[in-house]
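Q: what does this look like with adenosine-5'-triphosphate bound?
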Amino acid sequence: MSQIYAIVKKEMWQYFFSPVAYIVLSSFILINSFVFYVVLAAMSKSASPPLSPMALLFGGTFFFWLVLIVMIPVITMRLGAEERKLGTIETLLTSPVSDFEIVIGKFAAAFLFYLFAWLLTFVYVLILKAYGEVDLGSVFSGYIGVTLIGAFFVSIGIFATIISRNQIVAAVISFSIMALMVGMTFFTFILGSGKKEFFQNIDLLAMMENFSKGIIDSRNVIYLISGTILFLALAVKSLEARRWQ
Amino acid sequence: MLNAVGLKKLYGNIKGVENVNFKVEKGEIVGFLGPNGAGKTTTMRLITGFLYPNEGDVIIEGYSILENPVLVRKFIGYLPESNPLYEDLKVSEYLEFRGRIKGLKGKNLKERMDYVVQRCEIEEVMKKLIGSCSKGFRQRIGIANSLINDPPLLILDEPTQGLDPAQIYHTRELIKSLSLDHTVILSTHILSEVEAICSRVLLIHKGNIHFDGSLDDMRAAFSGGTQLKISLLCPENKGVEMLSQIYNIVKFTVIPSGDEKICSFKVTSKESTNIREEIFWKCYENKIPLLEMSLIKRTLEEAFLKMVSEEREEMQ
Ligand SMILES: Nc1ncnc2c1ncn2[C@@H]1O[C@H](COP(=O)(O)OP(=O)(O)OP(=O)(O)O)[C@@H](O)[C@H]1O
Ligand SMILES: [Mg+2]
């Protein structure tokens, strides 16, 4: 456990040393504030708003997905690829830590960074509360959704960076996998009813819509958690395979 | 302390090392010596568990590195070949990270950090970024990392590589002093380094161990006896005649002396014979004045080159 803490702490030092962290955070805030503003402006004109503004922030717009599938590759790409490039993987893998602990440490660092970014959006909740009623239940479940999808995507990013020697390659791999996952939604439109059922179960857009409406569907939760575990397990296996190569 | 048993490592179809067997006892300083591409780094990566072997096993303090990898790595402090470091961390942050990842915390961590900082003399760079440290300091930071959790075994891959002579001297002195309370394995392709630091040498060449023993043993094995230079006050033919009568001389060659009355020879004797005394008495018997007799100490450098070139001849 203290080894995992050591890794998280070191990754945090490196995050906040590099400009990438600040660029990611400011873009994140900028885009979300823009969305929030547009949504508020639109809602103040219409008499009966169909959704709460927070729901639109949680997956209700194209921007939500764009931010996720760009931001997560960027915050994960360095974690493994850089160790390989610098050669520090040699001191890391010969330290008295298991490959599992290394992967979890790296995952936790990126995930905490991601959660930190979302924590900033809590300001919007406070603003809304100041001006009117907010359904705190659906805000809560929305954050649960953001957390679970984030964990899933971060694990994809960790897997990609562990198998790459180059940061950009890592980012492209994880971006592609995530884009494919999000793009699954299109299959639900294209395909006939039989397969449609299957794709509906793994439709991230639909899942996020549920979360933002206050619905926590156990199938969605299980899907996202097992996806996270799967990619983390793949990352551990690839680290292990490195020693046998 | 360490027992490497039948190690074999293949990189795809390329042989890294093969049939590597050796033992290291507590307190030894062992030098891995070999030319580029010999397999020194591969062997070190196998004994540190960075790579797993295709065949064989490494036992450290009684534990197999394949069965107890995490435990065994606690016993090892490792300085990899190019001394990789995180350029964007401060030296203090780096050492704290390395200490924590090796299981140190709290007061203990602080004490060990203070100790290695003082031991490796890196106080003055503690607040600097590693990326801005000079090569000499980087090397000391790498060694400080290997020492941080006070492991019984230090494995240093080319610890003086790329340093200036003053830094090389400094690093060697540091390693020597560390060897008082750690078992040390280091690698180098410079013979004088082995001569300066090590008590034992493992000669690695083309992925195999060619020699394992003390430095003196190695010199003897490759030089095959004592070499002398002698000068006699007599014509060359008389000198040749006399030396031919000495049974214990394996070989002698004439060294041109530039003076007709004096002849000089380079003489190689059989192993472990008291050849100097024999030559003296032979000269006395033949009434030939002995002007000079000196020992030519065959350097390891020569022995090493000889071995490598013999290999090359064999191949052709
Ligand atoms: N990652 C790798 N992939 C393929 N071949 C490798 C790899 N690492 C080493 N080799 C090969 O294995 C052999 C032994 O290399 P190794 O690095 O162990 O030698 P070395 O004695 O450390 O050499 P040097 O003095 O140059 O550091 C060489 O033929 C080398 O080309
Ligand atoms: Mg090497």
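Confidence is low (pLDDT under 50) at residues 312-316 of chain B. Residues 300-315 of chain B form the longest helix (16 residues).
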